Amino acid sequence: MKQPQQGFTLIELVVAVAIVGILIAIAVPSYNTYVQKGNRAAAKTALLDLASRQESYYSLNNAYTTQMASMGYSSNSNIAIPSATQNYYTLSVAAVSSGTPPGYTLQATPVVGSVQATDACQVYQVDNLGNKTNVNASGSAVTTSGCW
């Protein structure tokens, strides 16, 4: 009496691995895009909060500041967004002008090596006039839709 075959053949295993590989090739980029979109909200919220703090500082001192501690942050260095343990963006005051009228530019820059480093929106910016833009590392405008 012949025993029934048990286990898988090599061809069946190769086909199963190929199917799993194709599914992973489709799912991982889609998942990364989804995660990047979710993390963008933290950058936008932090920038708008910083802009509000700049305006509060201006109302008391009649000037804008580059010092993060002057606006209620724990240090004068760049701030990690959303937190020090999950650092996707660095929040900073990019520029302050004391001309007439005075102004500022705030930036949320993706952290190198994080999932946001490859985000199409790149660097988020907001200025004292409320202009919301995205720029690349060299300062050129990014025209990706859906960032703000």
Considering the chains and any ligands shown, give keywords for the structure.
alpha+beta, 1 helix, transmembrane, single chain, 148 residues, 5 strands
Structural topology:
Blueprint: H1 10-61, E1 79-82, E2 87-97, E3 103-110, E4 123-127, E5 132-135
Antiparallel strand pairs: 1-2, 2-3, 3-4, 4-5
Total beta strand runs: 5
The whole-number mean of residue pLDDT values reads: 88
Query: How would you name the oligomeric state of the polypeptide chains in this document?
Result: single chain
Distance from N terminus to C terminus (CA atoms, Å) equals 72 Å
Query: What kind of sheet is the major sheet?
Result: 5 strands, antiparallel
Which regions are unreliable across 5 or more consecutive residues at pLDDT < 50? none
Sheet with the most strands: spatial strand order: 1-2-3-4-5
Derived structural class: alpha+beta
Our count of helices gives: 1
Following the backbone from N to C, one meets helices and strands in this order, namely HEEEEE
> How much β-strand is present in the residues?
15-25%
Task: Summarize the structure in words.
- The chain is an alpha+beta fold.
- Helices cover 35% and strands 22% of the residues.
- The chain has 1 helix and 5 strands.
- A 5-stranded antiparallel sheet has the order 1-2-3-4-5, with helices on one face.
- It is elongated, with a radius of gyration of 24 Å.
- The N and C termini lie far apart (72 Å).
- This is Type IV pilin protein.
- The chain crosses the membrane at residues 7-28.
- Keywords: Membrane, Transmembrane, Transmembrane helix.
- It holds the Pfam family ComP_DUS.
